[in-house]
C-alpha cells in the first residue's frame, strides 16, 4: 500500500531483519519442542493454530481485550472526521474506527493489513486532548498502518506469546503432575521450560528493538503529515503525565498491549520497566519532535 506518509527505509530494513531472525528462532524452537516432546503433529498443529488465530483475528482479540467497539460516523462524527481528513491527505484507505470505554488515555492500531486495519482510541484520550493533539495521535497511528508495521509487530509478538504459554504449561504440568511422572519425562519438561524461556528472552529483545524504532518512525511520519509536531509533542506530554495517575490495576490490564499503544501503560516508580519498554523514553520522543519542528520551521514549535 502506497501513501503520502513519509517512507522510512530504516524501518523497512529493521522489520525484514527482525522477521528473519525471529523466523530462525521460531524454526529452532519448534524443532526443539518436537525433539523434546516427541510429537511432531501435536506441536505443529498447536503452533500453526495459534499463529493463524493471532494473525487473522488480532484486531478482534485486541478490541475485545481493550473493551473496544466499532463506531459509525453518526456515533463519533468528530473522530471519523479527523480520520477522513488524514486519510485523504495521506491518500490511503480509511481503516475501521473503534472506541474503547476506558479512562486510560491511549490509542492503538491493529489488523493484519490495510484492508483489515482498525484504529481505536479510548474515551479517556478523547476527553483529555484538543482537536490538534488528537489529530497528531491519529496521524501517528495511521502511519503504523501505512508502514505495515502493525502486521509485523503482531506476527513478531506471536513467538513470545507461544514461548510464554509453553513455559507456564510445562511449569504447572511439572508442579501438579510430578508424582505420576517418570524421571525422563520430568527432565524433558524442564528442558522444554529452559528452551522456551530462552526463546522468550530472544524474541523479547528483538521485538523491543523494532518496537522502539517504529514508534519514532510513526512520530516523524505523523508529524510530517500534519506539519504540527508541537501538537503531537503536547499530546505525548499530556498523555504520559495522565497515565501515571491511572490506578495500577487498570494499567496491568492494558500492559499486554503496550507494543501497540501510542504510549506505554506504565505507572510511576517503574524505572526497571522503562528499561525494557516497547517505546523510547518520553524525553527521546520529544527531542526528535523538536528537531522536526525546527526542520519545518514551525512557529512556536519547541516541545513543551
UniProtKB/TrEMBL annotation:
Cofactor field: Zn(2+)
Active-site residues (renumbered): 141
Localization in the cell: Cell membrane
Residue ranges annotated for the Peptidase M48 domain, each copy included: 74-292
Annotated positions binding Zn(2+): 140, 144, 215
Organism, as annotated: Streptomyces heilongjiangensis
Membrane topology field: Multi-pass membrane protein
Gene Ontology molecular-function annotations: metallopeptidase activity
Transmembrane domains' residue ranges: 12-34, 40-57, 150-171, 186-207
Keywords: Cell membrane, Hydrolase, Membrane, Metal-binding, Metalloprotease, Protease, Transmembrane, Transmembrane helix, Zinc
Name of protein: Protease HtpX homolog
Gene it is expressed from: htpX
Cofactor remark from the record: Binds 1 zinc ion per subunit.
Enzyme Commission code(s) on record: 3.4.24.-
Similarity comment: Belongs to the peptidase M48B family.
Ubl conjugation among keywords: no
Amino acid at each position: 500500500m502506497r501513501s503520502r506518509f513519509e517512507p522510512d527505509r530504516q524501518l523497512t530494513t529493521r522489520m525484514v531483519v527482525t522477521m528473519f531472525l525471529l523466523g530462525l528462532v521460531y524454526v529452532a524452537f519448534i524443532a526443539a519442542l518436537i525433539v523434546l516432546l516427541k510429537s511432531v503433529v501435536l506441536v505443529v498443529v498447536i503452533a500453526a493454530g495459534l499463529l493463524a488465530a493471532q494473525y487473522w483475528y488480532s484486531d478482534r482479540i485486541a478490541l475485545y481485550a481493550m473493551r473496544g467497539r466499532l463506531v459509525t460516523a453518526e456515533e463519533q462524527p468528530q473522530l471519523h472526521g479527523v480520520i477522513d481528513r488524514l486519510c485523504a491527505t495521506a491518500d490511503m484507505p480509511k481503516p475501521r474506527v473503534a472506541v474503547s470505554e476506558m479512562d486510560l488515555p491511549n490509542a492503538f492500531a491493529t489488523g493484519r493489513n490495510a484492508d483489515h486495519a482498525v484504529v481505536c482510541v479510548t474515551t479517556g484520550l478523547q476527553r483529555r486532548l484538543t482537536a490538534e493533539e488528537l489529530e497528531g495521535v491519529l496521524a501517528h497511528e495511521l502511519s503504523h498502518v501505512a508502514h505495515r508495521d502493525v502486521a509485523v509487530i503482531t506476527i513478531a509478538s506471536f513467538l513470545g506469546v507461544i514461548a510464554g504459554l509453553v513455559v507456564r504449561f510445562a511449569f504447572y504440568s511439572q508442579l501438579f503432575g510430578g508424582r505420576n511422572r517418570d524421571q525422563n519425562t520430568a527432565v524433558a519438561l524442564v528442558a522444554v521450560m529452559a528452551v522456551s524461556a530462552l526463546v522468550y528472552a530472544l524474541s523479547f529483545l528483538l521485538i523491543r528493538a523494532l518496537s522502539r524504532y517504529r514508534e519514532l518512525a510513526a512520530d516523524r511520519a505523523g508529524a510530517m503529515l500534519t506539519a504540527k509536531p508541537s501538537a503531537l509533542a503536547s499530546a505525548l506530554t499530556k498523555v504520559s503525565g495522565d497515565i501515571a495517575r491511572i490506578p495500577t490495576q487498570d494499567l496491568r490490564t492494558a500492559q499486554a498491549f503496550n507494543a501497540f499503544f501510542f504510549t506505554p501503560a506504565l505507572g510511576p516508580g517503574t524505572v526497571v520497566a522503562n528499561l525494557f519498554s516497547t517505546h523510547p523514553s518520553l524525553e527521546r520522543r520529544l527531542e526528535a519532535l523538536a528537531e522536526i519542528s525546527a526542520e519545518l520551521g514551525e512557529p512556536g514549535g519547541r516541545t513543551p
